[in-house]
Each structure stands twice: as C-alpha cells, then as structure tokens.
Amino acid sequence: MTARLELKSVTKLFPSGDGVSGIDFTIRAGEIHALVGLNGAGKSTLMRLMLGMKRPDSGEVLIEGVPLQSLDPRRWSRVGHLIEYPFAYGELSVRQNLVLAARLRGMETARARQVAADIITGLALQKFAERRVADLSLGNRQRVGLAAALQHAPDLVILDEPTNALDPSGMIVLRDTLLARAAAGAAILVSSHHLDEIARIADRITVINAGRIIGSLEPGQAEIERAFFSLVSADAEAA
Amino acid sequence: MNALVTALGVEWSKFRHARFGQLATLGIILVTAVISPLMNMGDASTLSAGDWARYFDLTAGTVATGGLFGFGLVAVWLFAREFADGTIAGLFGLPVRLSTVALAKLVMFVLWASATTLAMTLALVLAGLPFGRGPFGPEATMALGRLVAVSLLTAWLTLPFALVASLSRDYLGPIGAILLAVIVSSVLADGGLGGWVPFAAPGYWAAAGGSADPTATILQVSGSLVLGLICAALTLRAWRRLEI
C-alpha cells in the first residue's frame, strides 16, 4: 500500500522537555492506523505536526512524498481532520457550519450544500440540521466536527479522539463510516483511549510513549489492554 | 484571489449570524444617534450644538474615544474568538491559507467599519433634522466629511488590538490593551503631545474642527494610518507563522 502521509525522523521538543523525538511513521492508503498512548504521550503533538499546526525541529512530514512546506495548497482539499475541538461555530446552524467547512475546502456553494446534505444524512444529523451548534450537546457537536472532517470525501483523514463524547449509536455510525472510507481507499489515522473500539476497526495499532514510538499491537489479539500496558511499563522501566 | 473571496464569504457568514456583531453594529449607530438630543439642551449640556458643523464635530469627538471601544471590541472578537472557541485548529490544513483567513478578517473589518460609519452618519443626520440647526452649508459639509474620516481613522486605529488578540490568543489581553491605549494616550496627549499621540490624533482633529493646522493634522493622521498599517502587516505575519 502507498504511504499517503509519512514522517521521517521527526523531532519536536518544547522548552519543558516534552514533545516527540525521532518519529518514523506512515499512514497508508486504504488502511485505518490507530495511534494509542497515555495522556501526554505525544499523540496530539504528532497529529499537529502532520497537519502543519506545528513545525518540526528536525525531520520531515510528507504527503504523497511532498514535504508540507512545498505542498500545493489545493492538496489540502482532500484532507480531513478533527483535532481537539470540533470545527463548528456556535452562532451557525449545523447545516451552515458544514457548508462553511466545505467552502473552505474549495467547493463551490452548490456542491458544498450537496455534500453537507449528504453527510447530515450519513451521520444521522437530520434532527439537528437547522439548530445552532451552541444549542447542541457535546456529543452532537462532536458529530458535527466529524461531519466537517469527512463530508468532502478526503483521502487522508486524521482524527484525534474521534469518539469523545459520542453515545453508542454515534460510535457505531463513526465506525461504519471510517471502515467504508478506508475500503474506498482513504488513509485514516485515529487516536483513542478506547482500545477495544480501536481493535475493532484498526488495521495497524502503533503505541507511543514519552514522545517515542515504542511498538505496535495486533488488532485481533486477546487482552489488548494488558498488552498495551506491558509495552508502556517495559518502556518506562527501560527509560 | 479565489481563496480570499471564499474566506471573506465565510467571515461574513459568521459575523452576520453572531449576536455580538449585530449588537456592536447597532450600538455604534444608535448610541451615537442618541447623543443628538443631548446637543439641543442649550446651556444645560456641554454637548450643546447650535449648528450642523458644531453638531458633527462634537459627535466626531465622541466617536474618536468611544469608537476605540466599539470598533476595538469587534476587531478583538474577530481574531480572538478562533482561539477562545477552539476553532483555530480547523483553520489549519485547508486550501485557504491561514494568512488569507487573517487578511479576510481585516478586509471584512474595514468594510464593516465603513458601512457602520455610513449608517451612523445617516442616523445622525436624521436624528438632527427635527432640531433646526440652520442651513446645511459648506462648513457643515466639511464637518460631516471630517466626522466620517475621524470614525474610519478610529476604526483603523483598532487594528493594533487585532494584533494583540492574535499574539495573546485570548480576549483579556487585547481588551486590556484597549484600556491601556485610551488611558496612556489621554495622559500623554494632555501632557502636551496632543494629536501627536496616534490614538489621540482623531480626537484632536475633531476637537479642532475647521481650525486645525492642516500640515500638523496631515502628519498626525498619517502617523495613525502608518501605525494601523504596520499592525495589520504584523497580524498577517503572526497568522502566517502561527503554531498551535
């Protein structure tokens, strides 16, 4: 499978000493790659580096072989992401927010309206479509954020804790959507604390600890949480 | 250019649906127009204005100070809200660059301030009509032009607060900067610098009315324009280099 996104020896350290160092990482077309780690392990930093929200101290981030700093801006129209907060403005309705997000991905207004309508159905948001986002529950705001990240059929998807605040039905809808997108050829990276949920959909699971990649887990393996903590504990003892 | 048009459309959509934007616009227009009756109270008010020219110059003085808050809060909101609401992360990784988003915010702010100034001026004229201020001669026309210019210059002078909002990434820093600018400018201006203090220049121009020294006024206004321009450029630079 082709590497749609690749990190080569990427290091980003903050004055506090936290950060990530020497990271080699790939997200391939047609697969769901999960990134797991404890709080503060460096998952969010890594994802921010992939999206240009942070610049590496050293190393390279490449999308289809092109370094981010040289990337044609139009390439970003095929990337979808949700990092930390849903991209949704409280004063706008769900539909208005989605049209706005699609417009920012370069779509004409008519096309933006169409993809917004499609994702509203796809993620079961019909009931809330005309409500202001400020009036929605946290879980439904998260759904709006996911809709904004996925509506334009991106071929590279980066989601930080996408199941945050989702109810069980939301988690099922998200799982089915991600599996369908990966089957259609999208490269997907998700981070999550829900190892069981990850194990159900991921093709690869990479473990990060203290800013370094320390190993991987088999999606189908039994006792995945125990295996995760064994890896992390062994790393902490070795450090 | 397409990216800027898209970003402008997005900014306008956010602004026109936001209660804050609606209230700020109405506030600037109506509060100013409400001053009109106060200017007809004769000796009972220090704001009394017997003719159109004095009426516009007095209003310009009010706008020069109040506008730093009115226009300034909108400039702050446009930039700080992306950080406060957490939407800034969604503005990365787009075909529309961050600096283009920031430019769209600046352009939208200037267009909004211009439209609000025109609406305020119209409201002011309408509010002044019933009180019989005599003929609307050339002096009144000049004063009206001065009022529009003072209002636009005051709005332009709030661009440094957009820069502070972009750097501090919150509301408190730039709101503190507005207060600081008003207080320090007043002290320095009263201390003898007068209209040479950029934030005080519009107020001194308004206070002098038609009797201002043209050369000094042009230099002072130019200083204010340059300050706003530098801060606009620095705001774009801050967004181009932004990391979160």
Automatic annotation (TrEMBL), chain A:
Gene3D superfamilies: P-loop containing nucleotide triphosphate hydrolases. GO terms for molecular function: ATP binding; ATP hydrolysis activity. It comes from the Bacteria. Keywords: ATP-binding, Nucleotide-binding, Transport. Residues 5-235 form the ABC transporter domain. Belongs to the ABC transporter superfamily. This is ABC transporter ATP-binding protein.
TrEMBL record, chain B:
It comes from the Bacteria. Keywords: Membrane, Transmembrane, Transmembrane helix. The keyword Hydrolase does not apply. The chain crosses the membrane at residues 20-39, 59-80, 101-131, 143-165, 177-197, 217-239. This is ABC transporter permease. It comes from Pseudoroseicyclus tamaricis.
